[in-house]
Amino acid sequence: MQKLTKLLNASHNIFLSEKTKKKSEILIIKIAIVSFVLHLLLIVLVDFKVLQVSDTSGLLQNPIVTIYTPFSFILIYEVYLLVYYLPKSINKYIGKQYEIVALILIRRIFKDLSKIQFTPDWFEIKGDLQFTYDIVATIILFYLIFYFYKLNERKDEKPVLTPEIVTFIETKKNIATVLVPVLLILATYSFTSWIYENFITVNKIVGAIRDINKIFFDEFFTILILTDVLLLLISFFHTDQFSKVIRNSGFIISTILIKLSFGVDGLLNTVMTVVAVFIGVIILRIHNQYDKLE
Question: Taking the alpha carbons of 152, 216, 4, 237 in that order, is the dihedral positive or negative?
């Protein structure tokens, strides 16, 4: 048991230290820039018939779509930050979930920009309508996330670190440490599978069915739901306050709705995403009112 604890502590210092966070940020920025240039170069080569590539995803048809690639790496870094903040603050951890959803929406907008049709029949074209929904939803999400963090503002009061809370924090550190390699493996598998399905395999039916916007993040939010439920159960060891139980349960419901939104398309997908974040904001607002009463 002591060996396992030492291993987890050492792994945490490697994966989730402040030094690793700063290095990861610099690395992701460099990768994002290189990927942007390479994607643009690939589009030029395909456009001039230098390369013959079957593109079922639509990522090689317009230079504007190149924004999609570096944004994807930025999203991966946001996933890392979510895990990084898990042991530090549950509200910051949930806030990062909402940031990721908003960035996924913005990334989809970048991809759809190349498909916009500027015609008088704007509200009759499916692609243009989806673009409009996403723009409005992004503005709403931006405000909801701002308000969520506004609700998280604390006075200069430091929480009392009881032995139960210290144990809970250590447990969250261990969970976060385990999540890092799990998510890294999942991201690698999802990316390589998508490359194979879209550019290598002869079976284009699979590549056509899988939505690129849902790759990795559908499974990622499934892992988050399981993590949130585990944290909820463990939290009962150090608190039985009704307001905190409801807050944590509400956050799980919010995460489940985000996960379910990946299974639908069109307006329903956008609405479910906004509703999921709205529920989290309202839950935190009511929880804070309970704290004032207590």
Answer: positive
